[in-house]
Write a structure and sequence with these properties.
- The protein is globular and about 45 Å long.
- The longest helix has 19 residues, at 192-210.
- Helix 1 (16-27) packs parallel to helix 2.
- It has a single domain (3-210), classed as P-loop containing nucleotide triphosphate hydrolases (Rossmann fold, 3-Layer(aba) Sandwich).
- A six-stranded parallel sheet has the order 3-2-4-1-5-6, sandwiched between helices.
- Helix 2 (43-51) links the parallel strand 2 and strand 3.
- It has helices at residues 16-27, 43-51, 71-81, 95-102, 115-130, 147-159, 172-178, 184-187, 192-210; strands at 3-7, 33-37, 62-64, 84-88, 106-111, 135-139.
- The chain contains nine helices and six strands.
- The chain is of the alpha/beta class.
- Bound molecules: adenosine-5'-triphosphate (ATP) and magnesium ion (MG).
- The site of adenosine-5'-triphosphate has 19 residues, from helix 1 and helix 7.
Length: 211
């Protein structure tokens, strides 16, 4: 049975699709990875389209684009046939996003360390809590340290939201890899971006092993 990761955050541009694509690329070739794109913007589906032609892809991933009444059944189907299912959700909590959070073994909330992003995430975090789903915030485009990051981390801790210890910096490599249908582990495996992503992957692996 697959481990289902739903990437959710109401704030647009927080890094949901980038994170979903890079996690899928990192696990491809080792695990049976399925992506489920429930965002009408279809960014992840378009990344997948590029990937099917990318020579440097380490492994195949499956993509489903399903919305509405077919979503629950599709999730059940993917759960049975894959090791990891990663759901990329739109920047609002509508019915589909609620279903995706309800079905998740882990809700991942990418968040740039700023107060508007923190406030925008409150609804997603509250929903995950209400649905009793394990949730982790992942700081994205984050400086390694600094007073703003500390402030955001303190506010998250005060609200009871758990944060991954690892985070991703602001690195152009993510956009470059995305444009090729790849992840940073494939385009630039020795880069800082790839090292940071590997730390995020390792943390998620630990959560998955304990689940
Ligand atoms: N760690 C990062 N470093 C640099 N650029 C990043 C990083 N993460 C995301 N980006 C860039 O930020 C922009 C938004 O990212 P992305 O599309 O992944 O966000 P999103 O949360 O999926 O957006 P939406 O809410 O519209 O679906 C993209 O141009 C992407 O390349
Ligand atoms: Mg997106």
């Amino acid at each position: 049975m697959a481990f289902i990761i739903t990437v959710a955050q109401q704030k647009g541009g927080a890094g949901k699709t980038t994170l979903a694509a890079n996690l899928a690329a990192a696990w491809s070739g080792q695990l049976r990875v399925a992506l489920l794109d429930i965002d009408p913007q279809r960014s992840l589906s378009r990344w997948y389209g590029l990937r099917t032609k990318a020579a440097k892809a380490h492994g195949a991933v499956h993509l489903s684009e399903v919305a509405g009444w077919r979503l629950a059944a599709e999730l059940d189907r993917l759960r049975k046939s894959h090791d990891i299912v990663i759901i990329d959700s739109p920047p609002q909590i509508a019915t589909d996003a609620k279903l995706a959070i309800r079905g998740a073994d882990l809700v991942l909330v990418p968040m740039q360390p700023s107060m508007p992003d923190l406030w925008a995430a409150e609804g997603t975090l509250a929903l995950a809590l209400e649905e009793k789903r394990p949730v982790r915030v992942m700081l994205n485009r984050a400086a390694a340290s600094g007073s703003l990051r500390a402030k955001v981390e303190a506010a998250l801790a005060a609200s009871g939201a758990a944060c991954l210890a690892s985070s991703l910096g602001n690195r152009v490599g993510f956009a470059n890899a995305f444009a090729l249908g790849l992840g940073v582990s494939e385009t630039a495996p020795k880069s800082l971006a790839a090292q940071e992503l590997a730390a995020v992957v390792a943390e998620i692996e630990t959560i998955r092993e304990r689940a």
